[in-house]
Amino acid sequence: MEWSAGRTQVNSWNEWDPLRHVIVGRATDCHIPPNEPALEAKVPEDSDMRGMWGKRPQESIDRGNELLDGFAALLEARGIRVDRPDPIDFSQPVTTPDFHTGSQFGCMPPRDVLLTVGHEMLEATMSYRCRWFEYLCYRPLMQRYFEEDPRFRHEAAPKPRLTDADYHKDYLSEKIGVEKRLQWAADKHFVTTEEEPLFDAADVLRFGRDLVVQHGFTTNQKGIEWLRRHFPDHRVHAVNFPGDPYPIHIDATFTPLRPGLILNNPQRRLPEGQREMFHRNGWEIVDAAQPAHNSPPPLCYSSTWLSMNVLVLDPKTVCVEKSEVYQAEQMDRLGMEVIPVELRDAYAFGGGLHCCTADVYREGGCEDYFPKA
Q1: Is 200 a catalytic residue?
Q2: Which of 249, 319, 354, 359 is catalytic?
Q3: How do 153-156 and 120-123 pair as beta strands?
Q4: Where would one find coiled-coil regions in this protein (predicted)?
Q5: DSSP 268
Q6: Is 233 a catalytic residue?
Q7: Rounded distance, CA 163 to CA 127, Å?
Q8: Which CATH class is domain 19-362?
Q9: What SS3 state is found at 17?
């Protein structure tokens, strides 16, 4: 498909083909939301964020937007079209017939909300009550794409009710302990139940005809089955990573760089039985380099392994957070041109370089990278 910068075309089948059009999030009005079942399970037990909620400090929001704007400008300078969401008032509470929560979250990580598969952009269910209305930040863009691209399909997964039945009560404790969390993860016992389909878009990695989906805190088996039925021409594979006590999203654990090469978090290795598809088809799975930091930034939910949350611009070029020198060195050894991007002070608003973006257009079509079943 020929790319034209002057008009919208929605087309993206994988994580590595040349990127031509992307959405970059904003930190504007981001809040630490009140406690709720999904959030309580995510916050580490020793975190200083427990019990905190409200708008984040304005100086940190300004700094986050400075870095996100800089990232957007860097991409534009490389000829990539960049769109931005329209933040809503995240101080507003969310009330439905089934739940109430005192405020919302933000719109820094569009990767959580929007899944682009080919010519379709799919709004995920979202398993956090505070993120119920987050899709509204992207609706003006979706309307514009619909008007400009006659092939574009705008889809939205069924909104879940998010009643208490969606969450396991045994996770609602401040003193579970890491050992028990690791055992529960190994047993595939997560905070979300199988009451209704739940998935976040950031739990899905795209490999052409194949979609690899993490079963964890934000995506349940019913959510994976819903994706399987929604994309009948794709092969949908469920994976899990037993070494992660807080299995939130896959993109700080399993990072495809180009056809045949994937980085895997050495603390959360893909189990041997789930590696067979990759090994049979000649893919190499290598341990990611260690993070450069021993702890996340202040008031940040994410782990230090955002070091491997990179954005691939094409099979030879990758954006890596500027301070993650060990990850950059590894990328260089793997034959990638590294573009350093300063973003660490924006991590707290929803993640790293992959999280804060959502693909609109990558060159290329739907390939079969796993022909050997």
Answers
A1: yes
A2: 249
A3: parallel
A4: none
A5: S
A6: no
A7: 10
A8: alpha beta
A9: coil
Q: What is the pLDDT along the chain (373 residues), one digit of tens a residue?
A: 565 666 899 999 999 999 999 999 999 999 999 988 887 777 666 666 666 778 999 999 999 999 999 999 999 999 999 999 999 999 999 999 999 999 999 999 999 999 999 999 999 999 999 999 999 999 999 999 999 999 999 999 999 999 999 999 888 776 788 888 889 988 999 999 999 999 999 999 999 999 999 999 999 999 999 999 999 999 999 999 998 888 789 999 999 999 999 999 999 999 999 999 999 999 999 999 999 999 888 888 888 999 999 999 999 999 999 999 999 999 999 999 999 999 999 999 999 999 999 999 999 999 999 999 7
Nearest to 136 by CA among 86, 175, 67, 203: 86
355 is catalytic: yes
Closest CA to 348 of 23, 47, 45, 17: 47
d(CA 131, CA 148): 28
Q: Choose, from 107, 300, 355, 356, the residue flagged as catalytic.
A: 355
The answer to whether the beta carbons of residues 307 and 291 sit under 8 Å apart is: yes
Give how far Cα 345 sits from Cα of 195, 297, 322, 325, Å.
37, 7, 11, 16
Instruction: For residue 184, report the phi and psi dihedrals to the nearest 5 degrees.
Output: -60, -40
229 vs 225: CA distance, rounded Å: 6
